[in-house]
Specification:
By secondary structure, the protein is of the alpha+beta class. It has three helices and six strands, in the order E-E-H-H-E-E-H-E-E. Helices cover 30% and strands 34% of the residues. Helix 1 packs antiparallel against helix 2 and helix 2 (41-58) packs antiparallel against helix 3.
């Protein structure tokens, strides 16, 4: 886990974790400690937890790989990223009417303020809170 300070009040945090379900809580706890005092900490932790859980359960990382959680705090925004090893992506209609994790991310971050970049070789789920 690394934490760096950059110009003009920007802080960065990176942590890499084994892609195992039990590690999601460790990633969440490390982020919570690092974001202590940040006004958007609770929202960022929830989003990071959702992204990490999806990576651990649905990416190629689950076969002995890792996930990397990154956070960047600037005076006007907070960005969260979770990187995994990619893999097949299934996106299609759902049978039930209950909200799913990405629905929660949309509700918190807002439309257009989050996304998933990459492909079967590697993917980054990201969200931006603030301006």
């Amino acid at each position: 886990m690394t934490t760096t300070a950059a110009a003009a009040g920007t802080r960065r945090h990176t942590g890499t974790y084994p892609a195992e379900p039990g590690q999601v809580r460790h990633a969440r706890a490390a982020l919570a400690g690092w974001l202590r005092g940040c006004p958007q900490a609770d929202e960022a932790i929830l989003i990071a937890s959702e992204f990490a859980a999806n990576s651990v359960l649905h990416s190629a990382s689950r076969d002995g790989g890792t996930i990397t959680l990154r956070a960047e705090v600037r005076p006007d925004r907070l960005r969260i990223e979770v990187e995994d090893a990619g893999g097949p992506w299934r996106d299609g209609p759902r049978d039930d009417s209950r909200p799913h994790g990405f629905d929660v991310v949309t509700a918190i971050a807002g439309p257009g303020k989050w996304g998933i970049d990459g492909d079967a070789r590697g993917r980054i789920a990201w969200a931006t809170l603030g301006r």
